[in-house]
Amino acid sequence: MYFNWMNPWQETARLQQEMNRLFDNFNIGSERAFPPVNVWSNDDSALVTAELAGLDKDDLKLSVMDQNLILEGTRKAEQLKENETYHRQERGLGDFKRTIQLPFSVDENKISAQFKNGVLTVTLPRAEQDKPKRIAIATE
Fold first, then answer.
1. Beta strands of 16-136 (E only): which ranges?
2. d(Cα 21, Cα 68) in Å, to the nearest integer?
3. What is the pLDDT of residue 44?
4. How many whole angstroms separate alpha carbon 100 and alpha carbon 25?
5. pLDDT grade for 29, boundaries at 50, 70 and 90
């Protein structure tokens, strides 16, 4: 890297772009999305896991629209006993909604979901018409 003495404004713009790129990677100034999710896929299905510690399955709602999985729910406040007050409260409360774009269309009739130990696992089988088709190559 070198400083462009002939055009300092161009160098300033490049430096600003680099700083923006650096801070984008750290999510500076913005809250992390809730719930945190992992998404992975293969040729046959996608799998989504979401960390939802402290929630009950009755607090959650799942739906699929187009190529999106929509996860909605409510984090309820813990009921304090008489003469108790919070010393620190960092866990968010209230309604949340997270839309996760899927890598392909899914077979809505075969979706399954399991909620165990605060982790939601959703299996989304790929729609048959969206699966890659192997094409045979003829020889002369």
1. 37-41, 45-51, 60-65, 68-75, 94-101, 112-116, 119-125
2. 27
3. 92
4. 19
5. very low
